[in-house]
Design a protein that fits this description.
Blueprint lengths: L1 E5 L3 H13 L6 E5 L2 H10 L4 E5 L7 H10 L8 E6 L6 H6 L4 E5 L3 H20 L4
Parallel strand pairs: 1-2, 1-3, 3-4, 4-5
Length: 133
């Protein structure tokens, strides 16, 4: 499994990776991007299974990135989890309508991330179990 983490803050990317590893994505390959344009470049060279993106970033924000992903046929089925500061949570419904799998408020805890991604994690484990069938 490959997970793309998009945030302009190195500390936030590291924290997100630690949370993801802590909830069960310890075997995942993590790809990091500093903003939406960087993420689009990484998507051209990598097939990813999950994207975690911040909203407020330079170059290209998370909302524009989400729009680009959902408009691109080869990427439109990739689940996108948006992380957002409390002030942006009012946009949650809009982001969900745009195709986000969910919106997680910043700051978030490992347990909050687990609650949002537990179904996705279970699907991944089921796929791993099916490899020999």
């Amino acid at each position: 499994m490959k997970i793309l983490i998009v945030d302009d803050t190195t500390t936030a990317r590291i924290f997100a990776k630690k949370c993801l590893m802590g909830i069960g994505f310890h075997d995942a390959e993590f790809i990091q991007a500093k903003h939406g344009l960087d993420a689009l470049e990484k998507l051209k060279d990598n097939t990813v299974d999950l994207i975690l993106t911040d909203l407020m970033m330079p170059e290209m924000d998370g909302e524009t990135l989400l729009t680009q992903i959902k408009m691109t046929e080869e990427w439109q089925d990739i689940p996108v989890l948006v992380v957002s500061s409390a002030g942006n949570m009012a946009r949650r419904d809009l982001l969900m309508e745009m195709g986000a799998m969910d919106v997680l408020p910043k700051p978030f805890s490992t347990s909050e991330m687990f609650e949002v991604l537990k179904d996705f994690l279970e699907e991944d484990e089921e796929e791993d179990d099916d490899w020999g069938d």
